[in-house]
What we know:
Helix content is 0%, strand content 57%. By secondary structure, it is mainly β. Strands 1, 2, 3, 4, 6, 9 and 11 form a seven-stranded antiparallel β-sheet that branches. The protein has a four-stranded antiparallel β-sheet with strand order 5-10-7-8, with no helix packed on it. Strand 3 (24-30) and strand 4 form a beta hairpin. It is globular and about 40 Å long. The model has no long low-confidence stretch (mean pLDDT 93).
Amino acid sequence: MAQSAQFDQVSVLAKANVYFDGKVVSHTVIFPDGSKKTLGLIYPGTYHFGTQKAERMELVAGSASVVFDGTDLRQDYAEGTSFDVPANSGFSITVAEGICEYICSYIES
C-alpha cells in the first residue's frame, strides 16, 4: 500500500498530541470531508494505545513491532507497510531504534 507523501487542501491543528513524556507526538489533519488523520513520530521504546474507533496505522519511515491486545504474537512492520486495529481494542508498539513516522487513519465502520 503506497502512502501519500502530501495531503492537499487540509487543515492542521497546531496543538500537538503529546504522549509518554514526548516520546510519541502527532498532529491532527482534517480533510475537506471532515475525516481526520494524525501524522506522528514514535521514538524508541514500548507504548500501549487503546482505540475507540478502528484505526489503520501506516508506517512512513522506520520500523516497529506490534502486539495486539488479546494476543501474544509480536508482528514486525517496516516502512511502507500498515496494520489495522479494531475499535474498542488496543495494541503495544515497540520501536527498537531510530524514529518511526506514521499516518493514523480512522476507519469508518
